[in-house]
Design a protein that fits this description.
globular, 10 strands
Amino acid sequence: MAKVIVIGGGPAGIMAAITAAKNNEVILIERNNEIGKKLKLTGGGRCNITNNRDIEEFFGKIVTNNKFLYSALYTFSNYQLLEYLSEKGLEYKVEYDEKVYTKSDKADEVIALFENELRENNVKILPVDSEHSAIFQSLSGYENKDINKIILTASGGPFRGKTLEDLKDVTVKEALKHPKWNMGQKISIDSASLMNKGLEVIEAHFLFDKDYDNIEVVIHPQSIIHSMVEYKDASIIAQMGTPDMRLPIQYALNYPERKEMIAKPLNFYEVGSLTFEKPDLETFKCLKFAYEAGRIGGLAPTILNGANEEAVALLLEEKIKFLQISEIIEECMIVFKDNYYDELTLENIVELDEKVKKYIREKWALGVN
């Protein structure tokens, strides 16, 4: 039996993992907060499973270089896919233009079917982000029902302890100077504003099926404890280690085994002490807005994320100041509030994301603020 690692929990990755698991040990690594995310959004949220046309008609729709799909489609055709899903109990229907949907019009049925198949075939789905990997490790041997809350740790970034007055005129260079982690520009700015932790809160909600009231953020400047789980008996289990992304990556790639260390071992005498602080949500409002968007649900996180991405881009271009990131996000959450509960489809997500970014770019890039 070989150990197979599948990277990406989209439709192709899911099917590859299920197929490989018949005779192998399989780990599926997914960076999103759920598998099959795009599949779930196809067909206006109803899940356009496939098309009922003959395979040769598929090739006719591909303008150039369609030969590269021959092997894939003839190895496992659209008809074989439908037969496979039928055997698993999924009922489907064929509509206009031979498009195939679930009979119930519920995409969740397809995702649930695949999740069940992954479980039955013992496929492990592992998060790679340091915080979510820490939570996963802290959950080892326990069940979700035993959890009281999840505790995500944050270093606090380069501006930990600063006030709004202190942050009025900080520079891009200062915002990029993270005290613990060496990261790209966008995530470094997100760390400085605590938006990165806000996005991790939303991810943890979906990954571990916990309510937002049971997900807590704690500032831990030493970045030694990467996250914790509090159980219903008040016990807390934490995952600790040096701040090195190779640790969660190595863990995911070798799970369930532990291989020889590639990161520097933790020396408690050098660390000295571990400290914890409550995040200042009035100074670092991005974290507060992330909780609010997560609780609202629907397309609110789309507005939050799109506004943040565009605001960070403008900051890096030095067209806005650091504190304007949260101001822009707050304005967009108000301006686009009528879109919160639009139908949750991939098309609507992309369209709303573009609308939010266009609104910001046209208003702030021209110096009107």
